[in-house]
Amino acid sequence: MATTLSASPSRQKPISDPVRRRSAQGRRRNVGWLFVAPFGIVFVLFLVAPLLYALYLSLFNKGLATGTTFVGISNYVKAFTDPNFLNGVAFVLLFALVLIPVQMAVSLAAALVLDAFSSLFVRFSRLMIFLPYAIPAVIGALMWGFLYSPSFGPLQQIFGANAPALLSPSNIFGALVNVVTWQWAGYYMIIIYAALQGIDKSLYEAARIDGANGWQIAWRLKVPMVASSLVLIVVFALIGTLQFFTEPEILAPISNGSIQPNTTPNIYAYSQAFSYANFNYASALSFALGIVVLIAIYIFMFATRKRGSILS
Question: Rounded distance, CA 296 to CA 77, Å?
């Protein structure tokens, strides 16, 4: 008797399931790209494309008689031998050496104090310390400009003719350090505070049983436990400080000449582009500053590397 053999459902599943699985994975992948696409488009249009165009401009030179000519790396050679650019780099490096330790000390002290207590007052204090970062840098610089103003600022109203000239050439460095410190200390405090909240509280109890006081717990236990966050903060601060632009540019009109167009590399590049229409050289200056930032970050990461850690 002839029998008809047909494939059972159990035998069909191994063939159809992988196909369905790959199809489902493909649909999920396409949906994922759909969600990423808006950011990707904005990223390419407003970051990648301008950078590539600026790189293209930096390789050319434009003159009234010669027109646009390809010069290769000549603009970069000129940038790294330009006294104005080098003086600006020296200023921001010195500024970073002074500013970053001050910011670290303020943000670390604030985070340690807030971590030691738990109350509604601590939450309010945390918000107030973070608030200067929430204010746009331009608005913050304008507010500090009012406070520093020798004409109508509160110091002039209180001390009159004896008011200290905070924007004078001898005081402008400290005045800028003060502005940037309070602009960013709250942001760095939040990073450190979040890292402190992740520490196992049983470690504190063990330290107290061993006889450690509050200062010893903070300095010998908490600070080493958040060392990776401190390194991250220094990297952020170093990148931002070497690209210093907003605060001195806003305060320049009331600084009575204390802030010059070559005070920082970014201001120098900005003046070359929009005061002298030298866009090619300004592009080269911007990329030259990027090279300086990369070198500075590499030196710092190399100096703070640890064996067996992600920083090595």
Answer: 19
Distance, in Å, from the CA atom of 187 to the CA atom of 64, rounded to the nearest integer, reads 48
Cβ–Cβ contacts within 10 Å for residue 306, how many? 11
Does the pLDDT at position 89 exceed 70?
Answer: yes
pTM for the full predicted model: 0.82
Selected residue with higher pLDDT from 29 and 139: 139
**Torsion sign over Cα 293, 298, 304, 305:** positive
| Cα-based angle 212, 203, 209 (whole degrees, multiple of 5) | 40
At the top level of CATH, the class of 76-303 is mainly alpha
Beta bridge partners of 69: 61
pLDDT digits (tens, 9 = 90+) for 10-48: 454 454 566 666 676 667 777 878 888 899 999 999 999
Which two tokens mark 119? 């109350």
Helix axes 265-274, 279-303, angle to 10 degrees: 170
Domain boundaries, the chain: 76-303
> Residue 115: CB partners within 8 Å, gap ≥ 6?
193, 196, 197, 222
Alpha carbon distance 27, 272 (integer Å):
50
pLDDT in tens, 279-303: 999 999 999 999 999 999 999 888 8
Query: Cβ atoms within 10 A of the Cβ of 273, count?
Result: 18
Residue 173 to residue 27: CA distance in whole angstroms: 57
**How far from the centroid of its chain's Cα atoms is residue 96's Cα?**
13
For residues 8 and 13, give the distance between their C-alpha atoms in angstroms, rounded to a whole number: 9
Residue 145 near residue 248 (C-beta atoms within 8 A): no
Beta strands at 60-63 and 67-70: parallel, antiparallel or unpaired: antiparallel
DSSP 3-state assignment of 147?
Answer: helix
